[in-house]
Amino acid sequence: MQTGTSKLGGMTTSTLSTVSIALGERSYPITIGTGLLGQSATFAALPSAATAVIVSNTTVAPLYAQQLQLALASKYKSVHLVALPDGEEYKTWQTLNLIFDALLEQGCDRKTVLFALGGGVVGDMTGFAAASYMRGIPFVQVPTTLLAQVDSSVGGKTGINHPMGKNMIGAFYQPLQVVCDLDTLKTLPDRELSAGLAEVIKYGPIADLKFLDWIEANMDRLLARDVQALAHAVQRSCEIKAWVVGQDERESGLRAILNFGHTFGHAIEAGLGYGAWLHGEAVGCGMVMAAHLSQRLGLVDMAFVQRLTALIGKAGLPVVGPQLHAQDNVGRYLELMRVDKKAEGGEIRFVVIDGPARAAMRGAPDALVREVIDACCI
Ligand code: NAD
Ligand code: GLY
Fold first, then answer.
1. pTM over 0.85
2. How far apart are the CA of 176 and the centre of ligand 1, in A?
3. In principle, which of 168, 260, 324, 360 could form an S-S bond with 271, CB 3.0–4.6 Å?
4. Which residues pair with 360 in a beta bridge?
5. Residue 262: active-site member
6. Quick one: which of 96, 250, 95, 92 has its CA closest to 164?
7. pLDDT tens digits, one per residue of 100-144
8. Is the separation of the CB atoms in 85 and 118 below 8 Å?
9. Eight-class DSSP state of 351
């Protein structure tokens, strides 16, 4: 971790910390700070190329693309912008193709560097485009949501949704650098800030109880967007994610713990229609359901479930699951969860908490899962 402040062109740039992802030749830094986006120095270590393409969306591009374009102009002869439609419902083949269309129209070659400027949707799609255009071109993540800064921009999972299942098509493909400019969080809607807090909270029960204590003690500062609090939340989340991904890049085991709450959460997202609930909202509620399942499996006590539920609620997230079907709600949840990537031979696998700061993946009897869904849904 490094710390530094510099004055460039009248603007103060602060690198509050750098977290490293150690993956041999695919290692890269996560730069966390303020005023980073508009400074060419932030991107100094990237390889040279004739062309850079910023992939963003119609909401984020008007806010931040120009700053980034200016910062990149000294390094790349041409810097193009692709603004995708905004929303989880656009995380599709059709939208992905818009990126390929633009890359081909601009004559982009194998050295072209893609910059994903936006939240997790833009980051996942840009990463997948980078993984597949000409069989792989370099890319950089410039996440502008809290969720993307603490989770989706780090670790190399890229992809798109299929109507039948979330993130079902994609690739593991690591960026060259992740740049988390905390200033971008100032324009984030409150609901999106809360969604990001779901993924921050996730790291506590699965890996670090001291961090869980810290989140509880600092939730008001986080909701008030205190920069120092956000910087710590982003840094600690990235450290934990780096630690997990460094041991299990392609999720053959350990990495699955990062999906705590996601089995129920993905069912909520797909069942309600992508975009109805935000990903972080579905994960927040999914963690409540997964905590109840852990309790019914005898792995944690009710006090833990209540503690986690209270924290998720305090972050402004839903703690009661939605009805996904008027006649057979439980059946619909089960049907959707069987399409989860962790399912094996049709058996649903859940990330459960099975000790202090310890998570594991396991199956659970259908009857127990049915009880949990019944108890947790309106
Ligand atoms: P998102 O990308 O849809 O962004 C949320 C909203 O905020 C969008 O409307 C966006 O345009 C807007 N926005 C972004 N930055 C802004 C800013 N600074 N100011 C104002 N508005 C801004 O959603 P998200 O929560 O960032 O990401 C969710 C996605 O990430 C899901 O598709 C999920 O599957 C994926 N994800 C991927 C991973 C991974 O490891 N690859 C991990 C977690 C989540
Ligand atoms: N967000 C889950 C993972 O990156 O593995």
1. yes
2. 20
3. 324
4. 352
5. yes
6. 92
7. 999 999 999 999 999 999 999 999 999 999 999 999 999 999 999
8. no
9. E
